[in-house]
Amino acid sequence: MDECEVLTLEVGEGDGGLRIDKWIALALPSLSRSRAAKLIADGKISINEERVSKPSIVAEIGDEVRVELPNLSLPEILPEDIPIKVLYEDGDILVVDKPRGMVVHPAPGHYSGTLVNALLYHIKDLSGINGVLRPGIVHRIDRDTTGSLLVCKNDLAHRSIAEALKEHSIYRSYRAIVHGRIAEDGTVDAPICRSRKDRKKMAVSPDGKRAVTHYRVIENFRDFSYIECVLETGRTHQIRVHMSHIGHPVLGDTVYGSGKSPFATKGQMLHAMELGFKQPRTGVEIRVASPLPEDFQHILSSLM
Q1: Rounded to whole angstroms, how far apart are CA atoms 219 and 229?
Q2: Which end of the chain is more exposed for a tag (fewer CB within 10 A), N or C?
Q3: Which residues pair with 10 in a beta bridge?
Q4: What average pLDDT score do residues 73-88 get?
Q5: Which pLDDT tens digit goes with each residue over 127-152?
Q6: Which one is predicted more confidently, 54 or 174?
Q7: Is 223 a catalytic residue?
Q8: Torsion of CA 144, 147, 152, 157, to 10 degrees
Q9: For the ranges 12-26, 63-77, 121-135, 246-260, which has the lowest average pLDDT?
Protein backbone atom coordinates (compact mmCIF):
# COMPACT_ATOMS: atom_id res chain seq x y z
CA MET A 1 0.00 0.00 0.00
CA ASP A 2 1.30 3.47 -0.87
CA GLU A 3 2.18 5.71 2.04
CA CYS A 4 -0.41 8.41 2.58
CA GLU A 5 -0.11 11.78 4.27
CA VAL A 6 -3.31 12.92 5.96
CA LEU A 7 -3.98 16.63 6.33
CA THR A 8 -6.84 18.08 8.35
CA LEU A 9 -7.75 21.59 7.25
CA GLU A 10 -10.43 24.01 8.37
CA VAL A 11 -12.37 26.32 6.09
CA GLY A 12 -11.54 29.75 7.44
CA GLU A 13 -13.37 33.06 7.56
CA GLY A 14 -13.77 34.41 4.03
CA ASP A 15 -13.16 31.02 2.37
CA GLY A 16 -16.66 29.57 2.63
CA GLY A 17 -18.98 29.19 -0.34
CA LEU A 18 -16.45 27.65 -2.74
CA ARG A 19 -16.75 24.25 -4.42
CA ILE A 20 -14.66 21.76 -2.46
CA ASP A 21 -12.37 20.94 -5.41
CA LYS A 22 -11.58 24.64 -5.87
CA TRP A 23 -11.13 25.22 -2.15
CA ILE A 24 -8.64 22.35 -1.88
CA ALA A 25 -6.68 23.67 -4.86
CA LEU A 26 -6.45 27.08 -3.16
CA ALA A 27 -5.60 25.64 0.27
CA LEU A 28 -2.94 23.27 -1.13
CA PRO A 29 -1.09 25.03 -3.95
CA SER A 30 0.73 21.83 -4.92
CA LEU A 31 -2.63 20.30 -5.95
CA SER A 32 -4.47 21.27 -9.11
CA ARG A 33 -8.25 21.41 -9.18
CA SER A 34 -8.37 18.33 -11.40
CA ARG A 35 -6.12 16.47 -8.96
CA ALA A 36 -8.47 17.45 -6.14
CA ALA A 37 -11.40 16.10 -8.16
CA LYS A 38 -9.51 12.83 -8.65
CA LEU A 39 -8.93 12.52 -4.90
CA ILE A 40 -12.67 13.07 -4.36
CA ALA A 41 -13.49 10.35 -6.89
CA ASP A 42 -11.07 8.02 -5.07
CA GLY A 43 -12.79 8.67 -1.74
CA LYS A 44 -9.82 10.52 -0.27
CA ILE A 45 -11.66 13.68 0.82
CA SER A 46 -14.10 14.07 3.70
CA ILE A 47 -15.90 17.02 5.26
CA ASN A 48 -16.81 16.77 8.93
CA GLU A 49 -16.00 13.04 8.81
CA GLU A 50 -18.32 12.37 5.85
CA ARG A 51 -16.85 11.30 2.52
CA VAL A 52 -17.28 13.84 -0.25
CA SER A 53 -19.12 12.28 -3.20
CA LYS A 54 -18.72 15.01 -5.82
CA PRO A 55 -16.48 18.05 -6.42
CA SER A 56 -19.41 20.47 -6.62
CA ILE A 57 -20.16 20.20 -2.89
CA VAL A 58 -19.69 23.59 -1.24
CA ALA A 59 -17.27 24.14 1.62
CA GLU A 60 -18.65 26.28 4.47
CA ILE A 61 -16.82 28.30 7.12
CA GLY A 62 -15.81 26.05 10.01
CA ASP A 63 -15.97 22.80 8.02
CA GLU A 64 -13.19 20.35 8.84
CA VAL A 65 -11.75 18.95 5.63
CA ARG A 66 -9.69 15.75 5.74
CA VAL A 67 -7.43 15.12 2.76
CA GLU A 68 -5.54 11.86 2.16
CA LEU A 69 -2.55 12.65 -0.02
CA PRO A 70 -0.66 9.69 -1.41
CA ASN A 71 2.98 10.52 -2.16
CA LEU A 72 2.35 14.26 -1.89
CA SER A 73 5.35 16.55 -2.00
CA LEU A 74 4.45 19.73 -0.17
CA PRO A 75 6.90 22.63 -0.19
CA GLU A 76 8.91 22.70 3.01
CA ILE A 77 7.94 25.68 5.14
CA LEU A 78 10.97 26.69 7.20
CA PRO A 79 11.20 28.74 10.39
CA GLU A 80 12.72 32.16 9.75
CA ASP A 81 14.11 34.64 12.25
CA ILE A 82 11.73 37.44 11.28
CA PRO A 83 10.81 39.85 14.10
CA ILE A 84 7.19 39.79 15.20
CA LYS A 85 5.46 42.11 17.65
CA VAL A 86 3.24 40.26 20.11
CA LEU A 87 0.35 42.29 21.52
CA TYR A 88 -1.06 39.53 23.75
CA GLU A 89 -0.07 35.96 24.60
CA ASP A 90 -1.18 33.14 26.88
CA GLY A 91 -0.95 29.36 26.78
CA ASP A 92 -3.56 28.98 24.05
CA ILE A 93 -3.42 32.03 21.81
CA LEU A 94 -1.47 35.09 20.83
CA VAL A 95 -2.29 38.30 19.00
CA VAL A 96 0.42 39.66 16.74
CA ASP A 97 0.77 43.09 15.15
CA LYS A 98 1.17 42.31 11.43
CA PRO A 99 3.20 44.88 9.49
CA ARG A 100 2.32 46.17 6.03
CA GLY A 101 3.63 44.05 3.19
CA MET A 102 3.78 40.75 5.10
CA VAL A 103 1.80 37.80 3.70
CA VAL A 104 0.05 35.83 6.46
CA HIS A 105 0.69 32.28 5.24
CA PRO A 106 2.62 30.54 2.44
CA ALA A 107 1.03 30.44 -1.00
CA PRO A 108 2.32 30.27 -4.59
CA GLY A 109 5.10 32.83 -4.93
CA HIS A 110 5.32 33.36 -1.17
CA TYR A 111 6.83 30.32 0.52
CA SER A 112 9.17 32.41 2.69
CA GLY A 113 9.03 35.71 4.50
CA THR A 114 5.45 35.10 5.68
CA LEU A 115 4.02 35.47 9.16
CA VAL A 116 3.86 31.66 9.39
CA ASN A 117 7.62 31.42 8.74
CA ALA A 118 8.16 33.89 11.59
CA LEU A 119 5.74 32.09 13.92
CA LEU A 120 7.48 28.75 13.35
CA TYR A 121 10.72 30.33 14.56
CA HIS A 122 9.38 32.16 17.62
CA ILE A 123 6.48 29.99 18.85
CA LYS A 124 7.03 26.45 20.13
CA ASP A 125 3.54 25.09 19.42
CA LEU A 126 0.91 26.05 16.86
CA SER A 127 -2.45 24.45 16.08
CA GLY A 128 -2.33 21.90 13.27
CA ILE A 129 -5.92 22.03 12.01
CA ASN A 130 -5.04 24.03 8.90
CA GLY A 131 -2.09 21.82 7.96
CA VAL A 132 1.57 22.53 7.31
CA LEU A 133 0.97 25.65 5.22
CA ARG A 134 -1.21 27.49 7.75
CA PRO A 135 -0.30 26.33 11.28
CA GLY A 136 -2.01 28.44 13.91
CA ILE A 137 -3.81 30.59 11.35
CA VAL A 138 -7.55 30.88 11.99
CA HIS A 139 -8.25 34.14 10.13
CA ARG A 140 -6.32 36.49 7.87
CA ILE A 141 -5.81 40.10 6.95
CA ASP A 142 -4.54 41.29 3.58
CA ARG A 143 -0.86 41.65 2.76
CA ASP A 144 -1.01 45.45 2.80
CA THR A 145 -3.40 45.71 5.76
CA THR A 146 -1.74 46.22 9.13
CA GLY A 147 -2.69 45.34 12.66
CA SER A 148 -4.10 42.72 15.02
CA LEU A 149 -4.15 39.07 13.99
CA LEU A 150 -5.19 36.21 16.26
CA VAL A 151 -3.07 33.01 16.22
CA CYS A 152 -3.92 29.70 17.91
CA LYS A 153 -1.34 27.56 19.69
CA ASN A 154 -3.42 24.38 19.89
CA ASP A 155 -6.42 22.70 18.30
CA LEU A 156 -8.71 23.41 21.25
CA ALA A 157 -8.14 27.13 20.84
CA HIS A 158 -8.41 26.88 17.06
CA ARG A 159 -11.81 25.18 17.17
CA SER A 160 -13.10 27.66 19.75
CA ILE A 161 -11.98 30.75 17.83
CA ALA A 162 -13.18 29.30 14.49
CA GLU A 163 -16.63 28.73 15.99
CA ALA A 164 -16.68 32.28 17.39
CA LEU A 165 -15.79 33.64 13.95
CA LYS A 166 -18.55 31.55 12.40
CA GLU A 167 -21.04 32.94 14.93
CA HIS A 168 -19.75 36.53 14.39
CA SER A 169 -19.08 36.86 18.13
CA ILE A 170 -15.53 38.21 17.80
CA TYR A 171 -15.30 42.00 17.86
CA ARG A 172 -13.18 43.35 14.99
CA SER A 173 -12.65 47.07 14.64
CA TYR A 174 -10.63 48.66 11.82
CA ARG A 175 -9.45 52.19 11.12
CA ALA A 176 -9.32 53.48 7.54
CA ILE A 177 -8.67 56.62 5.57
CA VAL A 178 -11.04 56.76 2.61
CA HIS A 179 -11.54 59.08 -0.35
CA GLY A 180 -14.23 61.74 -0.08
CA ARG A 181 -16.17 63.24 2.80
CA ILE A 182 -18.67 60.90 4.45
CA ALA A 183 -21.64 62.86 5.78
CA GLU A 184 -22.72 60.53 8.58
CA ASP A 185 -22.27 57.15 10.18
CA GLY A 186 -23.88 54.18 8.47
CA THR A 187 -23.99 50.50 7.61
CA VAL A 188 -23.24 48.71 4.35
CA ASP A 189 -25.32 45.54 4.08
CA ALA A 190 -24.37 44.19 0.65
CA PRO A 191 -23.58 40.56 -0.29
CA ILE A 192 -20.09 39.75 -1.53
CA CYS A 193 -18.80 36.99 -3.78
CA ARG A 194 -15.89 36.43 -6.13
CA SER A 195 -16.05 38.70 -9.17
CA ARG A 196 -17.12 37.01 -12.41
CA LYS A 197 -14.99 39.46 -14.38
CA ASP A 198 -11.79 38.97 -12.37
CA ARG A 199 -11.49 35.89 -10.15
CA LYS A 200 -8.76 37.54 -8.09
CA LYS A 201 -11.22 40.20 -6.93
CA MET A 202 -14.36 40.20 -4.82
CA ALA A 203 -17.52 42.10 -5.76
CA VAL A 204 -20.92 43.10 -4.41
CA SER A 205 -23.46 40.78 -6.02
CA PRO A 206 -26.94 39.41 -5.23
CA ASP A 207 -25.39 35.95 -5.62
CA GLY A 208 -22.93 36.59 -2.80
CA LYS A 209 -22.88 35.80 0.91
CA ARG A 210 -24.35 38.36 3.30
CA ALA A 211 -21.75 40.94 4.31
CA VAL A 212 -22.29 43.74 6.83
CA THR A 213 -19.89 46.58 7.69
CA HIS A 214 -20.76 49.29 10.23
CA TYR A 215 -18.79 52.52 9.82
CA ARG A 216 -18.39 55.60 12.00
CA VAL A 217 -16.89 58.91 10.93
CA ILE A 218 -14.08 59.93 13.28
CA GLU A 219 -13.02 63.02 11.34
CA ASN A 220 -13.66 64.60 7.96
CA PHE A 221 -11.02 66.42 5.93
CA ARG A 222 -11.30 68.29 2.64
CA ASP A 223 -10.93 65.27 0.34
CA PHE A 224 -10.76 62.36 2.77
CA SER A 225 -12.47 60.83 5.80
CA TYR A 226 -10.96 59.02 8.75
CA ILE A 227 -13.36 56.27 9.82
CA GLU A 228 -13.82 53.28 12.08
CA CYS A 229 -15.24 50.10 10.53
CA VAL A 230 -16.67 47.30 12.65
CA LEU A 231 -17.21 43.95 10.97
CA GLU A 232 -20.44 42.07 11.59
CA THR A 233 -19.37 39.46 9.04
CA GLY A 234 -15.91 38.73 7.69
CA ARG A 235 -15.86 38.20 3.94
CA THR A 236 -12.66 38.41 1.93
CA HIS A 237 -11.70 42.08 1.31
CA GLN A 238 -15.01 43.10 2.90
CA ILE A 239 -14.17 46.64 4.05
CA ARG A 240 -12.31 47.46 0.85
CA VAL A 241 -15.17 46.19 -1.33
CA HIS A 242 -17.90 47.85 0.72
CA MET A 243 -16.24 51.26 0.94
CA SER A 244 -15.56 51.22 -2.80
CA HIS A 245 -19.18 50.17 -3.38
CA ILE A 246 -20.50 53.30 -1.64
CA GLY A 247 -18.06 55.58 -3.48
CA HIS A 248 -15.42 55.95 -0.76
CA PRO A 249 -12.55 53.57 -1.62
CA VAL A 250 -9.74 53.11 0.88
CA LEU A 251 -6.79 55.43 0.29
CA GLY A 252 -4.00 53.60 -1.54
CA ASP A 253 -6.14 50.62 -2.59
CA THR A 254 -4.94 49.64 -6.07
CA VAL A 255 -7.54 46.88 -6.49
CA TYR A 256 -10.84 48.49 -5.50
CA GLY A 257 -9.80 52.12 -5.92
CA SER A 258 -7.53 54.08 -8.22
CA GLY A 259 -4.50 53.55 -5.98
CA LYS A 260 -3.59 57.20 -6.54
CA SER A 261 -2.41 59.02 -3.46
CA PRO A 262 -0.87 62.43 -2.81
CA PHE A 263 1.17 60.82 -0.03
CA ALA A 264 4.46 58.96 -0.31
CA THR A 265 3.24 55.63 1.00
CA LYS A 266 2.49 52.15 -0.33
CA GLY A 267 -0.51 49.98 0.45
CA GLN A 268 -4.04 50.77 1.50
CA MET A 269 -4.64 52.81 4.65
CA LEU A 270 -6.54 50.06 6.45
CA HIS A 271 -5.57 48.97 9.95
CA ALA A 272 -7.00 46.13 12.08
CA MET A 273 -7.04 48.02 15.36
CA GLU A 274 -9.03 46.04 17.92
CA LEU A 275 -9.91 42.42 18.56
CA GLY A 276 -12.35 41.37 21.28
CA PHE A 277 -12.89 37.69 22.08
CA LYS A 278 -13.28 35.12 24.84
CA GLN A 279 -10.25 33.17 26.01
CA PRO A 280 -10.93 29.67 24.60
CA ARG A 281 -10.25 27.79 27.85
CA THR A 282 -11.48 30.18 30.55
CA GLY A 283 -14.11 32.25 28.74
CA VAL A 284 -12.58 35.48 30.09
CA GLU A 285 -13.21 38.47 27.81
CA ILE A 286 -10.04 39.81 26.19
CA ARG A 287 -9.67 43.06 24.26
CA VAL A 288 -6.45 43.78 22.36
CA ALA A 289 -5.56 46.94 20.43
CA SER A 290 -2.84 47.64 17.88
CA PRO A 291 -1.49 51.21 17.62
CA LEU A 292 -1.73 52.95 14.26
CA PRO A 293 1.43 52.42 12.19
CA GLU A 294 3.74 55.38 11.59
CA ASP A 295 2.83 55.92 7.93
CA PHE A 296 -0.88 55.97 8.83
CA GLN A 297 -0.24 58.51 11.60
CA HIS A 298 1.88 60.62 9.25
CA ILE A 299 -0.93 60.86 6.69
CA LEU A 300 -3.46 61.79 9.39
CA SER A 301 -1.13 64.56 10.56
CA SER A 302 -0.73 65.81 6.99
CA LEU A 303 -4.50 66.02 6.58
CA MET A 304 -5.09 68.06 9.73
Answers
A1: 13
A2: N
A3: 64
A4: 87
A5: 987 777 788 999 999 999 999 999 99
A6: 174
A7: no
A8: -130
A9: 63-77
Distance CA 235, CA 15 (A): 8
Check if the beta carbon of residue 247 is closer than 8 Å to that of residue 141: no
Domain-located, residue 149: yes
Model confidence pLDDT, tens digit, residues 158-186: 999 999 998 999 999 999 999 999 999 99
Written as one letter, the residue type at 221 is: F
Q: What is the CATH number for 31?
A: 3.10.290.10
In 209-237, which positions are buried (b, 16+ CB within 10 angstroms) versus exposed (e)?
bebbbebebeeeeeebbbbbbbbebbbbb
Q: Do residues 177 and 261 both lie within one domain?
A: yes
Number of domains in the chain: 3
3-state secondary structure 232-283: CCCCCCHHHHHHHHCCCCECCCCCCCCCCCCCCCCCCCEEEEEEEEECCCCC
Which one is catalytic: 92, 142, 144, 253?
Answer: 142
Domain region containing 196: 172-272
Residue 304 lies in a domain: no
